[in-house]
Structure formats: C-alpha cells, structure tokens
Write a structure and sequence with these properties.
single chain, 779 residues, alpha/beta, 8-stranded mixed beta sheet, 6-stranded parallel beta sheet, 24 strands, globular, Ald_DH_N, amino-acid biosynthesis, glutamate-5-semialdehyde dehydrogenase activity, glutamate 5-kinase activity, multifunctional enzyme
C-alpha cells in the first residue's frame, strides 16, 4: 500500500532504508501517545506552520486572518497551562511583499521623471533573491506575531537557527537551555531557520542519530525531540496521508498511520511557497512524513493536518489537542482489531448479502438470536453482574441509569418474545411492492421496499437495546454499527457475540459490528460517506450532541421527551388517577413519562384535584408550579424555572389552562412533539385534541407510557422519532426501510414519447397483490 499527500511525483522509499529516520541520540527513547484520545494529556506542544498556511494565495504577503486564528488557538492552549512552541515559515513571503513595494515605488518615481506616467504600466519586477527577502521579512514577521499574541496577554520570543547550530554540541545545549527558560517564564518561543544566512544543503548530510535541518518540517521534528515535546502538530495545505494518490477515486484519508506496518510511502510535490530553509525541496511532503516519523521514533506524537481550510482553521489545533479526528495521527501502537472504517466496510458488504437473503432466512437468524438469549442466559447475567458491580463501586451512576443497566431473567425472556415477534413481521418487509404502474405498453414501474444501508446506533447503559436493534436491522436487511456505553462493556460484548453467532447461520456474521475502539461519538458522526443513518438511544444531552455533530448524516430520534397529560373538566376521577400515576411514576426516567400536568381551571378546588395532589405526594413526586397555577395558591410549591423541562425523575410541573384549545397551544409552545395525552369523557373534545395536537403520539384516556414499539406491537423499536419526515413515533421495522424504483421495459426511449414519437403514456395503476413475472414473492 502506498501513502501520499499529493497526487504527483511518486518516490517510493522503504521504511528501514531511509537514513533520515535514524534513531535520535539527543533524547532517550520516550513513549508517544498510542491513541488520539490521549492527546488531551499533551503538556508541551510544537506547532509547525508551513509556508502555505502562513502566506496568501498569491505567495506575496501573509494570510492575516488565518494567522490570527492560529495565534488565538495557541494562546488559549498556553493559557490552559500548556507549553507551546511555534516553528514558522513566512519570512520570505513577508519580505517579498516589502521589497516588491519598495521596488515598485522606486521604479515609479524614476519612470515618472524620465518617461511619463504612460510607461508605468510596462514596469516589470526583477527576480527577488530569497535570502534578501528573508532578511527583509524576519523583523516584520516577528513584530506581527508579537502584536497578535499581545491581544491575549501572551509574550513571545524569536529564535533563529541554522543546521550548523545542531551540529555543535555547545550551541545545542545553549538552545535547549534558552527554550526551557522561555517556557518556564510562560513565553511562547517562535522559531525559524535563519534563511538570510543558511548555506546550500549538502547531499545526504544526515548524521548518525540526528536529523539535518533541511526545512521547517525537519526543524520542528528536531526541536520536538530535543525538547521532549509530547506532541508535534504539522500544519500545511494538505489534509494528511492518503492510502493512494488524493484525487483518485479510491483515495482515502488515513486517520492513523502505523509506520511499522507499511512497506512504502508515496510522496507528493513540493509546497507552492517557501524555500524550505533555503534548501532545495525535491518533495516537501516527503520531508514532512520523514520528519514526522523521525519525531515519532524520538517519543513525540505527531499529527499532520490542513491549516488552510477556511471552515476548520479556526479550531484545527484545539480539535487535535482534544483528540478529535483531524488529519493523520502517527502511532507506533497498532490496534488488535479492525478500525471503525474497516468495520463499516465489512458491515456494508455483509449487509448487502443479508438484504439478498430470503425473508424466511432472515427470520431464522432472528429466531436463532432469540433462542441464544435463553440458552446463554447465565453467561449474559454474569457479564451484566460485572458491569453493575463496577458501576456501583464507581459511585458515579444514578439509580435510574443503574436500573437501565441491569438485566434480569424476566427482561431476557421479554427480549426473546419481542425478537420472535420481529421474526414473524419480517416475512414481508424487504422487497415488498408498494406501488405498480403501467407507464406504457411493455413498460412497468414498481416501487419496492429496500434497506436504508448502514445504521449507526449509539446507546447508553441500555444493553437490552443491542439485541432489539440487532433483530430489527436483520429483519430490515440493514448493516449495523453499534457503539455502546463503556459502563455496559461486558454485557454488550457477549450480546454482540451472540448476534454474530446467529448471523453465522447464513454466513453474514460481519453485518453487525460493535465499535470497541476509543472512537469518540463526534468522530463517528463524521463518517458521512460510510454511514446512512444515526440512531441515538440515551439521554437528551447525548441526542442533542449527536444532532449537532452529524451534519452530513440524518439522525433519527428526539432530543427531549417533554410529555403532557391534560385533565379536562369532563374527565373521570378514576381514569385521571390511574393515568397520571402511570404516566409519571411507572418509569420516571423514560422519555415517554409525563413531565407536565395540565389541568382545566374548573378542576381546581374540586375533590378530583385534591386527590391528584394526594396521589402525587404519596408517590413522592416533587411538584413544581407553573406561573398560572402559582397565582392561585397562597403557599405554592417551588415555581417552575422553565415550562420546557424534562425532569426524568419523580418530579413534574402542574399548570392551569382555561380550555382544551389553550392546552393544545401550551403543548405546541413548550412540548417536544413526543407524546401528549387528554383525559376526558367528552368524545368531541377528545377528537379535536387528537386532531389538533402536532406530536408523534397523541392519546385519549391512555397513559403516555404506551408510546413504545413493543406496546404498539412492533416487536421492538430503535427509538422514538419526533422528526417530520420518514419515520415518526416509535420506530420499528418499517422505519428502517426506504424504497427504490424498478422499471422493466422493452427498448423504449424518452424520445418515443415526444410529440414526434410513436408511443403514448398510460400511467395505469396496477394491483400490488401479485408481483410481476420474475419478482420474488414474499410470504
């Protein structure tokens, strides 16, 4: 496999044969970070700014906006207590701008005196010598950095070095001492090669155990190792390393590069600007990669990333330090299993095979999984016990989450029953004909159901979610990527093994993958080219975070479950007490639990209202008064801070409304379009409520807790959606399907149906009960 940063000039080198990558002697072997998530621990950081990052597109002058955002990030990290160093390019470009200005000014004066203004447009600039440009630009570049950092109360110091400074032991010790002293005083050193005096390069000048300073890439690597830096961030105008030349169809950006596992590296062309420390760059990206590998051997972690992209420049450095997937991370530790990208590819391939199975074959897999839940019950409960003990001993998990985490024999039995319901319903799911149209003679069109593709389900402390979602994915022919909470790691692991064992019945084991690597949820949400739908199962905060992060992937779910129960003035006392108690107290942490009780004003100061309050107090429900309800009371309970609150506990808000219509208006203003209930004996009022309330689930004289896929007879659900398109409410098997159009013709063309054509459209609706000839039937 080859690795490239640019698609041109390929020069293949063997990892073991590159003299540039000799082990550094200046520092004893350190230990670089093995995973991106560990980068948060980086204390000492070197940021290398390539010429393309610092300079404008016209290669004359600095990219001030880009530079300002980089300075802001470095200053922020410095103020967090980290030790930041910058290795910068830009002196040549800055000097070129100054010298061009001076030359143009001088030429314009002379030509104005001798030739008149008409000759100004014919002026040509001489080729500027790079060393002169560097000499003219160094002071201005440093003054700019100093002015920018001053805005953040951060001091800077300039250090100019040459390759010879690293060949002299005394000079190296002096440089090391100076840098340490500056860092001790909380000053940001800004380092650059002294391009005004540096001599031409010597071929193959790398010494044993050291790296020659050929450019700012090698300078940054050398300094990072000399200073025992934890992290080197190399910013240029490329995204990172690719598995083939970028721009080709199959090129993929490498998230992590493991040097010892690769045989060759393909390098690209030199950068568009800069002079590489006044030394010729046969290929800047070769230097960049080599410098990164050398630093990695010296114990410094490295990330190569794009510092010029307008959408990410403002947070690229901080994102890297936070462990987000930006650029290519160099690691010497290769994970034992496949990467999440490889898992997704495996799942998609196996998922397509799963979708092509006969309906009864998919049902057999689900039946097998249901049987395994019963047969392997003791193993499952044993793994779950380990998770529970760890969670309890940690003391950080609330009782409601512990309840979700816990499995029991009865829960496993219920799961098995639900899975068998799914197996029955899956018989006519994939490939079902929804519509048939005879477009013209011998031209028939069908709309049929098909799987969505690859689903990513992220769930917290709910191990019972894994077999439910797995069964629904199998029934709908979808590939599945699962990311469970670490608090249920042992339980999730054995449940996933059982799911794969069931899938093996028809050789589609890889269709369901459990992500067990240290992938951050936000990083998973960026795989828009690999994942077709994200389904979050967890807290409202988790759902909101995923909805924000998944900008290119649809998210099916709801961020809040603010459910209302409205007690009409014509409600039955018995029904009110039963429904309100169940809606709030049956499972307060559920998303379909009541959070706000709306009461018609005529119910106040009646025995019914007194009984409601007594019941809630008996159940130890903490009551918060809405503004109108509080106004009716002399001594009211705590007034609600917000009418748009999901308590998720034995708490609720009570508010007063004047009518059913006002209750509907309140629900639309403060609700989350999840589940809302009316309790009344007036059928006309109830029907109006059912029609007017714009929520995923609207009930009459029934508990809000019925908003559940199992209770709806869906067998199980992947979640409850409050979206306006595709699936809404409890999402079961049907919500995991989409459609495609199949057209069967006999050589027809669009031209045949034009004004001059010989054919006419029929657009005749055909019955869907019988499939067309050759179409597989569904049982």
């Amino acid at each position: 496999m080859s690795f490239s940063c640019f698609p041109t000039l390929h020069a293949v080198r063997q990892w073991s044969n590159v003299p540039f990558l000799t082990v550094p002697l200046a520092r004893a072997h350190g230990k670089s970070f093995a995973h991106r998530s560990e980068l948060r621990q980086a204390k000492r950081i070197v940021v290398k700014l390539g010429s393309a990052v610092v300079t404008r597109g016209d290669e004359c002058g600095l990219a001030l906006g880009r530079l300002a955002s980089i300075v802001e990030q470095v200053a922020m990290l410095q103020n967090q207590g980290r030790e930041m160093m910058i290795v910068t390019s830009g002196a040549v470009a800055f000097g070129k701008q100054r010298l061009r200005h001076e030359i143009l000014l001088s030429q314009s004066v002379r030509q104005a005196l001798h030739s008149g203004q008409n000759q100004l447009k014919d002026m040509s600039l001489p080729v500027l010598e790079a060393r002169a440009c560097a000499a003219a630009g160094q002071s201005g570049l440093m003054a700019l950095y100093e002015a920018m950092f001053t805005q953040y109360s951060t001091c800077t110091a300039q250090i100019l070095v040459t390759n010879l400074d690293f060949h002299d032991d005394q000079k190296r010790r002096n440089l090391n001492s100076t840098l340490h002293e500056l860092l001790r005083m909380n000053i940001v050193p800004i380092i650059n090669t002294n391009d005004a005096v540096v001599p031409p390069p010597e071929p193959n000048s790398d010494l044993q155990g050291v790296i020659s300073i050929k450019d700012n890439d090698s300078l940054a690597a050398r300094l990072a190792v000399e200073m025992r830096a934890d992290l080197l961030i190399a910013l240029s105008d490329v995204e990172g390393l690719y598995d083939s030349p970028p721009g080709t169809d199959d090129a993929k950006l490498l998230d992590t590069f493991y040097p010892g596992d690769q045989q060759s590296i393909t390098y690209g062309t030199k950068s568009r600007v800069g002079i590489g420390g006044m030394e010729a760059k046969v290929c800047v990206q070769a230097h960049c990669v080599k410098a990164a590998l050398w630093a990695l051997q010296g114990g410094t972690s490295v990330v190569i990333a794009n510092g010029t992209h307008p959408k990410v420049t403002g947070h690229v450095i901080t994102d890297i330090v936070e462990g987000k997937k930006v650029g290519t991370f160099f690691s010497e530790v290769k994970p034992a299993g496949p990467t999440v990208e490889q898992q997704t590819d495996m799942a998609r391939t196996a998922g397509r095979t799963l979708a092509s199975l006969l309906p009864e074959q998919r049902s057999e897999i689900i039946y097998a999984l249901a049987d395994l839940l019963t047969e392997k019950r003791e193993e499952i409960l044993s793994a779950n016990k380990k998770d529970l003990e760890f969670a309890i001993n940690s003391g950080r998990m609330p009782a409601s989450m512990l309840k979700r985490l816990s499995l029991s024999p009865s829960k496993l039995n219920s799961l098995a029953i639900g899975l068998r319901q799914i197996a029955v319903s899956s018989q006519d799911s994939v490939g079902r004909v929804l519509r048939r149209t005879r477009v013209a003679n011998n031209l028939d069109l069908e709309q049929i159901t098909v799987p969505i593709g690859v689903l990513l389900v992220i769930f917290e402390s709910r191990p019972d979610c894994l077999p439910q979602v797995s069964a629904l994915a199998i029934a709908s022919g979808n590939a599945l990527l699962l990311k469970g909470g670490k608090e249920a790691a042992n339980t999730n692991r054995i449940l996933h093994e059982l799911a794969q064992e069931a899938l093996s019945v028809h050789n589609v084991r890889d269709a369901i993958q459990l992500v067990s690597t240290r992938e951050e949820v936000e990083d998973l949400c960026r795989l828009e080219k690999m994942i077709d739908l994200i389904i979050p199962r967890g807290s409202s905060q988790l759902v909101r975070d995923i909805q924000r992060a998944a900008k290119g992937i649809p998210v099916l779910g709801h961020s809040e479950g603010i459910c209302h129960v409205y007690v009409d003035h014509e409600a039955s006392i018995d029904k009110v007490l039963k429904i309100v108690r169940d809606s709030k107290c049956d499972y307060p942490a559920a998303c379909n639990a009541m959070e706000t009780l709306l009461v018609h004003r005529d119910v106040l100061r009646t025995p019914l209202f007194d009984q409601i309050i007594d019941m809630l107090r008996t159940e130890q429900v903490k009551i918060h008064a809405g503004p109108r309800f509080a106004s009716y009371l002399t001594f009211s309970p705590s007034e609600v801070k917000s009418l748009r609150t999901e308590y998720g506990d034995l708490e609720c808000c009570i508010e007063v409304v004047d009518s059913m219509q006002e209750a509907v208006d309140h629900i639309h203003k403060y609700g989350s379009s999840h589940t809302d209930v009316i309790i009344t004996e007036n059928e006309e009022t109830a029907e109006q409520f059912l029609q007017l309330v714009d929520s995923a689930c609207v009930f009459w004289n029934a508990s809000s807790r019925f908003a559940d896929g199992y209770r709806f007879g869906l067998g199980a659900e992947v979640g409850i959606s409050t979206a306006r398109i595709h699936a809404r409410g409890p999402v079961g098997l049907e919500g995991l399907l989409t459609t495609k159009w199949v057209l069967r013709g006999d050589g027809q063309t669009a031209a045949d149906f034009s004004e001059q054509g010989s054919m006419k459209f029929l657009h005749e609706n055909l019955p869907v009960a019988q499939p067309l000839t050759g179409q597989r039937t569904s049982n």
